[in-house]
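Entry 0007
Protein: LRC43 protein
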Amino acid sequence: PGSVSAAFQEYLQHLGLQDFPCGLGSWNKSRLNARRSLRAEPAGLEEALPPGEESPEALLELLRDQHSPWALPPQCSPQDRLLREVAVLAPELLRGSGVFQAVKSLRILDKGVEEVDEGLLQFQQLEELILSANHISRVPSGHLPRTLKVLELCCNAVSDLQDLCARPPPELQHLGLGHNRLCGPSQEKHLTVDFWPNLVSLDLSFNSLTDLLELVSQLSTLQNLHVLVLQGNPLALIPTYRGFLVDSLPKLAILDDIHIWPEERQQFHGLARQPELLRSGARVVVSIGEMKGLPSPEDFQQLNVGPEGPVITYSYCVTYEF
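Output (structure tokens):
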């Protein structure tokens, strides 16, 4: 599927919410016009069931028994199980657009999704959206439900945050952009409290961010930020990188998956006031210990070549890609 909406429809087909033992069919057709919960059903219902129909208890058992052919795999999410059980107890709630109201967490991983389409706005209760390991390069904020609290876009192709920050979800608490294509210094301006007033956790790992001073200047406006991941960026190679961040962001609790203890904060106290310690460049020395497959110059020196003999010159070009 090319869009999130198409991937969601594929997900629904996988869950089989309209197929036995879920949904409405010959196995429970007498309940088609009766909206009553399992608790409200009278005792002895199983004996009163029409021939060929199953009680809600029996249908639920088919979903929950791990040996049942209709049971979900153990790695399925709690939401998968909840939707299937709702489709047994109250299938009318998931008919039509009702299914969109029941989904609070949507996980679409490695499905080839390229487009975050406006169909997402149908999820009016969505709080968690995880789209990791797809091919998304653009995230229009106008297509994101305003109820979102978690947005995870790890391992995609996002290179610019302008579309995402046009009108971002105001209650977002976690933003995951690790393993994308963000390049400094133009992206730091989108990482401020003006766009993310409630952000608690931010993952920018393994991008191409280089300007630590500018990034810290913007992140310091995020008063609720407690978790930050920057490892894998060129700026993380700066010798005073961790100490400078620890001292510059006093409310930060975890940096690059490592807790910041009071002793560490005290150790780096005052480093934020010494930006001159941040080097803007680095030198890499490459030493070649051995090369194979090339004739050795010493072999030519041993040749007895007369004054009128031919002169043979060898030259080599060696290219390294980093």
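Curator remark: The domain at 4-33+53-277 is CATH 3.80.10.10 (Leucine-rich repeat, LRR (right-handed beta-alpha superhelix)). The CA atoms of residues 137 and 158 lie 4 Å apart.
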